[in-house]
């Protein structure tokens, strides 16, 4: 971006991860690395580190909506993403807000189960997420476990990813990417895109690292950033996948558990190091 040009603005509606690896923290880093100005509407505060989540405190639904409104009326949002929405009341308030006055592009990361197995949503909120939020999505990005819940099937193979993507697309999003990070072996780097036409297999190399915390949040944030920059949804998703693969190659071996992916890679050989 040349000097004087203003960046597009992307909004994340998500939870805080005190460890800085996922949630709002991953989203804002991802936006910044795309030269997109990041705004945020916080939904909840998790006490979390590389070992897992120990406590979650929700914000009042009205506080979440007030943050969205504050950004929307002043800054102008080019694209948004939703992450951890936690409970029925917050999902319902966000859906009402986004249905009344839609944003130009919306990535729905239906955060329900993290790859560490932590449940990140109340049981009775899953149906609301499926029935009311997913249909608003330009792109929806369930992981293996979320896709199993949404599609009502087991996912063990590439063929299963394709069937699940088609089933979830029937729920109403314009496009769906089922992420294969939770699958074993070489399928870890394989996602399936479906937008009603031919399914597209998105394949990058599998990065062999235990430090994968934040991949899902960062993928959906990078898709939102690329949409804000004007890319079409499939191109935005392909570029986002490349971003996450690079960040996995530079992941951080910090903490005692699953460290976060590294967002600094675009800077490593740039001006910071001369
Ligand atoms: N080891 C890996 N090598 C290459 N790509 C990977 C690997 N793990 C995950 N990915 C990619 O990262 C993105 C996020 O997928 P993943 O299934 O990990 O989401 P998630 O479960 O929501 O993330 P998280 O682990 O943060 O909860 C996808 O594009 C997936 O293909
Ligand atoms: C606050 C928060 N939001 C989302 C996730 C899941 O993130 P991911 O799927 O990237 O591990 C998380 N662990 N914490």
TrEMBL record:
The keyword Kinase applies. The keyword Transferase applies. Its EC number is 2.7.1.49, 2.7.4.7. GO terms for molecular function: hydroxymethylpyrimidine kinase activity; phosphomethylpyrimidine kinase activity. Pathway: Cofactor biosynthesis; thiamine diphosphate biosynthesis; 4-amino-2-methyl-5-diphosphomethylpyrimidine from 5-amino-1-(5-phospho-D-ribosyl)imidazole: step 3/3. InterPro entries: HMP/HMP-P_kinase_dom, PM/HMP-P_kinase-1, Ribokinase-like. Residues 17-261 form the Pyridoxamine kinase/Phosphomethylpyrimidine kinase domain. It is an enzyme of class 2 (transferase). Pfam families: Phos_pyr_kin. Keywords: Kinase, Thiamine biosynthesis, Transferase. NCBIfam families: HMP-P_kinase (TIGR00097). This is Bifunctional hydroxymethylpyrimidine kinase/phosphomethylpyrimidine kinase. It comes from Limnothrix redekei LRLZ20PSL1. The lineage of its organism: Bacteria, Bacillati, Cyanobacteriota, Cyanophyceae, Pseudanabaenales. The gene is thiD.
């Amino acid at each position: 971006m040349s000097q004087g040009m203003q960046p597009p603005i992307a909004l994340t509606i998500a939870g805080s991860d005190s460890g800085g690896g996922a949630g709002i923290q991953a989203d804002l880093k991802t936006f910044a690395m795309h030269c997109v100005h990041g705004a945020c509407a916080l939904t909840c505060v998790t006490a979390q580190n590389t070992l897992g989540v120990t406590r979650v405190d929700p914000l009042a639904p009205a506080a979440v909506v007030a943050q969205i409104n504050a950004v929307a009326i002043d800054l102008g949002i080019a694209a948004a993403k939703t992450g951890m929405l936690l409970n029925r009341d917050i999902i319902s308030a966000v859906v009402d807000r986004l249905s009344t006055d839609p944003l130009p592009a919306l990535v729905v990361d239906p955060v329900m189960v993290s790859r560490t197995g932590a449940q990140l949503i109340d049981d009775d909120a899953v149906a609301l997420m499926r029935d009311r939020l997913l249909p608003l999505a330009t792109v929806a990005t369930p992981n293996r476990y979320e896709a199993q819940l949404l599609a009502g099937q087991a996912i063990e193979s590439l063929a299963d990813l394709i069937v699940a993507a088609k089933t979830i697309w029937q729920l109403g999003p314009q496009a769906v990417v089922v992420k294969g990070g939770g699958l074993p072996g070489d399928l870890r780097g394989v996602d399936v895109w479906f937008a009603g036409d031919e399914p597209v297999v998105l394949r990058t190399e599998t990065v062999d690292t235990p430090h994968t915390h934040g991949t899902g949040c960062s993928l959906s944030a990078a898709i939102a950033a690329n949409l804000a920059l004007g890319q079409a949804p499939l191109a935005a998703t392909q570029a986002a996948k490349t971003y996450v693969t690079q960040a996995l190659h530079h992941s951080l071996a910090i903490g005692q558990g699953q460290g976060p992916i590294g967002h600094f890679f675009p800077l490593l050989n740039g001006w910071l190091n001369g």
